[in-house]
Design brief:
Strand order of the largest sheet: 15-18-19-14-13-20-21
Shape: globular
Keywords: Oxidoreductase
Number of domains: 2
GO molecular function, one term: oxidoreductase activity, acting on the aldehyde or oxo group of donors, NAD or NADP as acceptor
Strand content: 15-25%
Number of strands: 21
Radius of gyration: 22 Å
CATH topology of the largest domain: Aldehyde Dehydrogenase, Chain A, domain 1
Distance between the termini: 39 Å
Length: about 400
Amino acid sequence: MTPGALVHAFRRGAWHPSLDLAALPGDTGTRLALVPEIVVAADRSWWDGVAPGLPAAPTDRRGLLLKALHEFEHGVLDVGGLGPQSADDFRAALWRTAGIPASLTDRWCAMLRAGLIERPRPADDEALALVALPGNTFTCLAAVLEQVERSAAVWVRPSRREPLSAARLVAALLRAGWPVERIALYPTGRGALSGLIRRTDRQVVFGGSGLARSVRSLPSLTLHGPGRGCALVPDPLCPDRAVEWLVPLIAADAGRFCSNVRTVVCAGPAQPLASRLAAALDELPPSKWPLTVSREPGGAQRAARLVAARMRPGDRLLTRRPPVVAGPDGAPCVTPHLVLLGDGPEDPAGHPLIGHEVPFPFAAVVTVSERDAARIADGSLFVYEPPQSAARRRTA
């Protein structure tokens, strides 16, 4: 990626720079063009004017999307402001700005493709849809694909921390033949999100607890908040089998997904399992279980403190590696953390580490009553049981 490059917005069928800019993390000096809310308002009026005269959307949308994903993963694409970007350029840019290793980029591309193939085809409609993406943008691009397959047009609001994957997907859709007037990329500040929501017909919004509190409820809005994933460990369960089952749920994808397990709920004594699980997390080989690195100054240290600050008297950090270590190019990454919650008079289901989401592998292990286990599960979007039981996914 050219030092000092500017990632453009895509609106009204063309890539556009902006005077309002945000710097991306990392050492590339790359900046992101931000779209002011007044421009968003004007663009909705423009869309209403041109929509009646547009040709119909492609009939074979699934085929178009599969072609776009092939270009996304392998092609040389003209990404506005960045110029021609190869697949290797894309992976290098994600590593230098977002700290995502190329092996994870490859894995996540495959997940997007598999998810599209497996998903039922939706009925199409005439809605102008918005997809507002989170900091962990990449695999949430599946929501963009879903809305493209069903909507008259889609406006994408990328993360300001990692807009490159969203910008490349827009370029891939254009290469595959999606009409230019029916797709847009609107990087904005947090304050402009409400304007995008007001000016679209259907909205899919991703974010954490803070964003969830800031977004008003609408019948047309689907809010994907924290996953707060938990695993329910029955008594008895062989600790070795439990560790083999739990390590991927905690550590896969560098702990970056809302589906990762954050709480291990034990029906029996938690100490034996927690000790073995902590040792297994300490021994994970980077070649098989890569971690993402932090490109924001002090970001890794701040992330690690998000766990320490929520620990209460009696809680113990069982993992032994330093909380922050140097990654492959010297940039810091946060190692997996496992905390054994202590016994106390407080409500265990209300402990601040229960369901706590951080951008690295982390889990809290706790023994609770059947009643409290049910309460924790009820507050979790993703609930896992051992392989002999079917994993359950709860809908928001």
